[in-house]
Structures are given as C-alpha cells and as structure tokens.
Design goal:
Length: 115
C-alpha cells in the first residue's frame, strides 16, 4: 500500500467517523428533543463535506463502495445483532468497529484499483 492510498484511507476513515457521529447525534436529537445534539450533527456533516469538497472530487466507484459498506454493515448489525454484542450495546460503536474491520480492507482495494 502506497502512502497516497494510506492518506486516502485515513481521510475516508475520519469522514466515516464524522458521518456515523452525525447520524448518532441526529438520532439523539430525535430521542431527546434537545437542540444541542442537532448542532453537533451539523458540525459532523460539515466536516465530511469540507473534507471531500476542499481538495478534490471523489470518483464514482469510491462513492458506490462507501455507500455499500455503510449500508451493508448497518444492515448486518441490524439483522444479526450478536455480531457486535461482545463490544458494547451501542449500535453506533459496533457499526464503527464493523466498518473498521470489514470496510477498511475493501476501501484499500477500491482505492488501489481506481488509482
């Protein structure tokens, strides 16, 4: 893996972290009715937007693979809840752990193929 791919994977991982964090804070806003988590969610989504629009545009295959990873891991956790039960009961923490374990190798392969 080259340093260029490593930098892209690191950027992808932090963007995924902020994306899942933004979704978590939106659900927290819905559950509690407080306005504070909503502003944190906006900040998280803003970080994802800034990370990808400040430097360059993402290739279409990378976007499709990312959507597939996020949707696939969320669906896997939803329909097979015992997968992340050994880590914690929080769905979002388990989701991030599953993205790290399954998504990172897939994204390394995807970035190497598109480079």
């Amino acid at each position: 893996m080259s340093m260029d791919v490593f930098g892209k994977i690191l950027k992808w991982w932090f963007s995924t972290l902020f994306l899942v964090g933004g979704i978590y804070f939106l659900t927290l806003t819905q559950d509690t009715g407080a306005k504070g988590p909503f502003f944190v969610a906006l900040l998280c989504f803003g970080m994802v937007y800034w990370a990808y629009n400040s430097r360059n545009k993402l290739p279409r295959p990378i976007i499709l693979v990312t959507v597939g990873i996020l949707g696939g891991t969320a669906g896997l956790l939803h329909y097979v809840p015992d997968i992340g039960a050994f880590i914690t009961d929080n769905f979002f923490v388990n989701w991030l752990a599953l993205i790290a374990c399954l998504g990172t190798p897939i994204m390394i392969y995807a970035y190497e193929k598109t480079a």
